[in-house]
Design goal:
Radius of gyration: 19 Å
Strand content: 15-25%
Number of helices: 11
Number of strands: 13
Number of domains: 3
CATH class of the largest domain: Alpha Beta
Structural class: alpha+beta
CATH architecture of the largest domain: 2-Layer Sandwich
Largest sheet: 6 strands, antiparallel
Length: about 300
């Protein structure tokens, strides 16, 4: 059924979960406001709901019949909110409990991808007792150090010498008890969104000095986005197939976005999967959807249509 044929009133009273208490709260509020406005323009009875300020049980008491989750990071994108909504029997957008938890855990995401034949950069789990020189020797330099359960490049460092790995670990460890070092992949940075069972056009990212960090993701106008990506059509199609395989392996549903690197030799390496991607003015899912002929208001209605319980 086309979204344009839907009766917006059929969704009932809809809560847009935004904000929350993760390190990505600021971005979630920006995303949530855009989603809220898009749903309202589409005729949906949508209301903002911040779990950091209200108990989730109020969703049931206040008669919400559907939830659009646009919380980023922990306590929203990690299966916890999804589990609470399932207990209350309220349909929600995006992936279920298991897939949300897995995708928030970059380490276990990598383990599943490797087990299913999907390429992802080599990694080492770090601790305060790690041999930093050995880590650098095993993965090569430069390398990436990052917390396992954070998004938006929070706590992430690109390390160029073994002597700097310890400081990068300490920074990441402030964000998470589990930290990994990952082999750096030199090449083109790409992102691939999907909507239901369809991969959207790929976006090629050019960040200043190749540093696609928190500032350059959400606030800089210097980052360049190329959609169409400029890849040969057959290569883009192959990458889209790989991304859908990666999503299926993790049990993802509804919508999401995979980040990947295309090595200089043509090999693609999946980095992570986002189950509640950003929807800000700088965000990539709306950009990819637009390239596929889906405007923002239609996109949010389609995502809401895919809401489910379990």
């Amino acid at each position: 059924m086309s979204v344009k044929q839907l009766d917006p009133g059929s969704f009932g009273k809809v809560a847009v979960l935004m904000g929350g208490k993760s390190a990505e709260r600021e971005i979630s509020l920006m995303s949530g406001q855009n989603v809220l406005e898009g749903l309202r323009r589409g005729g949906v009875d949508a209301h903002a709901f911040d779990p950091a300020q209200r108990e989730l049980s109020e969703l049931k008491r206040e008669g919400f019949s559907r939830v659009f989750i646009i919380l980023h990071g922990r306590y929203g994108e990690d299966g916890t909110v999804q589990g609470a909504l399932e207990t209350m029997g309220i349909p929600y957008t995006g992936s279920g409990v298991m897939a949300s938890a897995l995708c928030m855990d970059k380490l276990r995401t990598k383990l599943i991808w490797r087990a299913t034949g999907i390429q992802t950069p080599r990694h080492v789990v770090l601790s305060a007792a790690s041999d930093w020189a050995a880590v650098g020797g095993e993965l090569g330099l430069p390398l990436i150090v990052k917390p396992v359960h954070e998004g938006s490049s929070i706590g992430l460092t690109k390390v160029t010498s073994a002597e700097k790995i310890e400081a990068a670990y300490e920074l990441a460890a402030k964000c998470d008890t589990l930290v990994i070092a990952e082999a750096f992949i030199s090449g083109r940075e790409l992102t691939a969104a999907f909507l239901h069972d369809r991969a959207l056009p790929l976006i090629r990212i050019e960040a200043p000095q190749g540093n696609y960090d928190y500032q350059n993701k959400y606030f800089s106008d210097d980052t360049k986005y190329h959609c169409p990506s400029g890849l040969p059509p057959e290569q883009e199609s192959d990458l889209q197939v790989t991304v859908m395989r990666a999503a299926v392996a993790l049990g993802c549903a509804g919508w999401g976005r995979a980040d990947l690197m295309l090595h200089d030799d043509g090999q693609a390496f999946l980095l992570e999967m986002n189950t509640a991607p950003g929807m800000t003015g700088h965000s990539l899912v709306p950009m990819a959807a637009r390239a596929a002929g889906i405007e923002f208001d239609e996109l949010v209605l389609k995502i809401l249509e895919l809401a489910h319980v379990g």
